[in-house]
Automatic annotation (TrEMBL):
Single GO biological process annotation from the record: signal transduction
Residues in Methyl-accepting transducer domain copies: 18-251
Name this protein carries in UniProt: Chemotaxis protein
Lineage: Bacteria, Pseudomonadati, Pseudomonadota, Betaproteobacteria, Burkholderiales
Pfam families in the record: MCPsignal
Keyword flag Ribonucleoprotein: no
Family designation: Belongs to the methyl-accepting chemotaxis (MCP) protein family.
Entry keyword set: Transducer
GO molecular function: transmembrane signaling receptor activity
Source superkingdom: Bacteria
Amino acid sequence: MFKFGKAMHEPEIRQEPPAVDLERVVGGIAHEAAGIGKESAELNGLIDDLAALSGRQAETFKALADEIGAMVRANHEIEAVTKASTESVRRARKTVEQIGQGVIAVTDNLSEVADAANEITQIALQTRLVAFNASVEAKRAGEAGRGFAVVADAVRDLAAKVEQSSKLIMSTVTQLDARIKTLADDIQSKGQASGGKGGTFDAAVSEVERGVAEIADAAQHNLASCAGVLDSVKGLSNQVDNTATALQNARKRAEGFLSLSESLIEMAAESGVRTEDTPFIEAVTAAGQRITTLFEEGIRGGTLSMADLFDEHHQPIPGTNPEQFMARFTPYCDKMLPDVLEKLLTLSPKVVFSVATDRKGYIPTHNRKFSKPQGGDPLWNQANSRNRRFFVGRTEWAAINNRKPFLLQTYRRDMGGGNFAVMKDLSVPLFVNGKHWGALRVGYQF
């Protein structure tokens, strides 16, 4: 006998899936996305700090390389000058030697002159004797020899003068010869001697040559040292450049995470499910509508014009540091916007600031705590006088160009004194009579 079990086709029991708590799920996604955004913003800030440090290091290495390059050029100039100096010393030595040889040649020439003068003297003596004999013979001849006697006397006088001149030449030559021989001996002795009080010409020239050679050696040593240091600096500079490139790539990746987290937060807010950001979105949206109303009422009432409101000729305020500006709509904003902006600060202790900014990033009116008159300290002014100034960074630029109902961003804010805080930036676009004017921005902490 066979026993059969349960039928093969028993009806299946279906179970309904558990109810999904959509609000809890979406809220969790928004919370996690906010955490990712906060960490991404912190990472972006750290990368920016490292990039700034890397940039300063690159500038330092460049300046150092420029200084070393200047040292190299200076040493090349020293090398060129020492070569020229060595050549000048060589020419000076050669010139002195040539002078010595020239002096000796002059001495020889003077000797020849003396010999010639001596011969002239001898000839003059003989001429005088001949003239004397001729004069005697002329006297003996009487009247017939008178003319000859006159000539003989003239020749004798000329011979006497020649003899006298020759003796003067010989005397002068003798004196010159003595002086030139002394000069020649002095040049030769100074060219050969190696000692003596105060040194000699040759010793001085040799000392100059040694000094020039030492300078040239030092310049060569400096060139070698500079080349080694320059190679090291270039190597470090290349490493810094590589680091900067790596930081840029890391910044792009972190920026991608940040954008993703912001998109998730916006999707959660747009889903209709209430999240931790919903109260802020509702309050900022209402405040944006109120500012639009104030602008349009001012235009209808004649206290403000569209041309004034959209004035982009911001005029610098003299004597301000950091520089502040005035636009034609600034006085109206100072009068009408503070109540709206100050009310947003009471929304939560997390709210740090609320501002309306035009399309250029200009903030005419800020919260009262950030709108104090400037003083003499630019750093104090930077933190406490933030009205009537331009602020255009990644976050600001995205806010003033946004056309969606709202934009929620995450960024790291400089709180001064080297302190930073990761914050959310919630903005809504401001339209006046259908024309985009700028944005209302509210910054609040996590």
